[in-house]
Amino acid sequence: MDPILEIKGLSKAFGGLKALVDFALRVHQRELIGIIGPNGAGKTTIFNLITGFIRADSGEVWFKGEKITNLKPFQIVNRGMSRTFQLVDIFKEMTALENVMIPCYSHRATNQRHRGRKPWKVAMEFLDEMGLGHRYDEPAKNLAFGELRLLDIARAMATEPDILLLDEPFSGLDVEDATVLSKAIQRMHEKGQTMIIIEHRLRDLLKLVERVVAIVFGEKIAEGTPEEILNDEKVVNAYFGERRE
Amino acid sequence: MANLEDLYGPRVLYKRLLGLLILCGGVLLAPIVFNDLYYLELLFLCHYYVILACSWDLLTGFTGNVNFGHAFFIGGAGFSGALLNLHVGWGPWLTLPIGGLIAALCGLLVGSFTLRLRGPYFAAVTFCFATLLYKWIMIRYEIFGGEEGLHGVDSLMEATLGNYYVSGILMLIVVFFLYFLSKSSFGLILRSVGENEIASEGSGINTTFYKIVAFMISAFIAGVAGAMYGHVQMHVGPEMAHDSLSVLVLIMAVVGGMGTIIGPIIGAYLLTLVNESLRFMGEFRLLIYSSAVVVVILFAPKGLLDLITRGLHRVLGQGK
């Protein structure tokens, strides 16, 4: 089966700093993939490159058989790739419902199955899905941090993405919030949602994903199942330092 | 669960309509109370500034892209209308919409170059265009009349009362249109651009397109108002393209409350009337007027509308 997303030789340097070097990845439909790496390893750069927020120096991104390397962010969203943001500074002055209504006005959402349905009703369904239905009229600035994470996922999901990219969804969450989020991700996965999750907190991530890619200093050092990754010497070294003889 | 139709459905629009009907009543009945040429002309000025401040608010108040050169559209359309009237002989009913269209096209031109960028470029460029137009008017005096401007433009209506009503009706149309536009999906998207353009784009919204369209609408309305002003005064002058007019419009919107459409109405009426009522103060007028503006901005940074709504909430016991 052809991959839904194929990244070939993607590279990006910021001045002298090589943020990403020759990165390649194939993602198939319904897969749930994790990208791990210490802080500053270049994880968010990967998302920024494939979603069009920054331009790659070299390499190509193919999505559903189309090259999307030089498209603008909104064009990529409208082709079916949506992302969340690490720093969830979404539309703070708007209510939770309005936050999710915005993507309902995107070209993709209005042309797809939302056609003819009231955007606030569609948005409400996505809020309910994330367990935020009761907070619909609350300005986003009054929501708790964990709720904001869920709200950002609801916002990204409202564009009906074929692939969803989650940027460090667990960072800053306490155990309780992390459990709620894990369950939400599992539910989406069971419904067949293709996802890539970036995370540096391994514990929450490795329980969820099927395949893991580890990167350090912009380079892929390992790829495999969670068990394989946990036993990979290079990964262990990157996280805990080299073993003393 | 609360009824979403009540919050976002058409019914909520009827409730809002009620508030605007009060403004309609005021505009229609004011000449009965103030049946005096001086007051009618003063109220005409209020209408004019309300149109300018509200149109400015659509782009800047909602998306945060500061337009420092609204006078570019006001003066540009004012002079276009006057020249078409004087040389081609077209009447106000043609020059008003054509002035607006010319302004909208200028908005498209300026906006397509600058509104794709984030940062201060848009503010700087709008400021420059207005300054360029002002200088051009001064330099090419054989076309624009220089400091004197152009005289002998056809009057909009025969009588002052006619001018009052035409400007009043135009103001009401603009206010209704902009208010309901701001409450529509278009307005919500503009607000999202103002709050976080990256997240808006990440939600699949072509933010540049929305900003340019808002800028064109804003320019069109300012253009119509500029052309109307020229016909009412039967004269257009370089001050219509001067920076001080851009700043005045900006201050009116800020004092009233940006991003609300209703706030700029309050700001425009208030500042026009206060400025006029301070005339007896002579040389102290500007000092008092400016100090008052500074005080309002200091104590009500979100504008007078915000102050009024919070006050009402407190009185009615609905405050949060």
Main beta sheet of chain B: strand number and arrangement? 2 strands, antiparallel
Oligomer type: heterodimer
Strand order within the widest beta sheet of chain A: 6-7-8-3-9-10
Tally of extended strands of chain A? Answer: 10
Which ranges of chain A are low-confidence, i.e. pLDDT below 50, for 5 or more consecutive residues?
Answer: none
Coarse morphology of chain B: globular
If you had to describe this structure to a student in words, what would you say it looks like?
The complex is a heterodimer of chains A (245) and B (320). Chain A has 245 residues and is an alpha/beta fold. Chain A is built from ten helices and ten strands. Chain A has a six-stranded mixed β-sheet, with helices on both faces. In chain A, helix 3 crosses helix 5, helix 3 runs parallel beside helix 6 and helix 5 packs across helix 6. Chain A is globular. The N and C termini of chain A lie far apart (45 Å). The model of chain A has no long low-confidence stretch (mean pLDDT 91). By secondary structure, chain B is mainly α. Chain B contains 15 helices and two strands. A two-stranded antiparallel ribbon of chain B has the order 1-2. The longest helix of chain B has 27 residues. The radius of gyration of chain B is 20 Å and the shape is globular. Classes of the chains: A alpha/beta (245), B mainly alpha (320). At the A-B interface, helix 2, helix 3, helix 4 and helix 5 of A face helix 1, helix 9 and helix 10 of B.
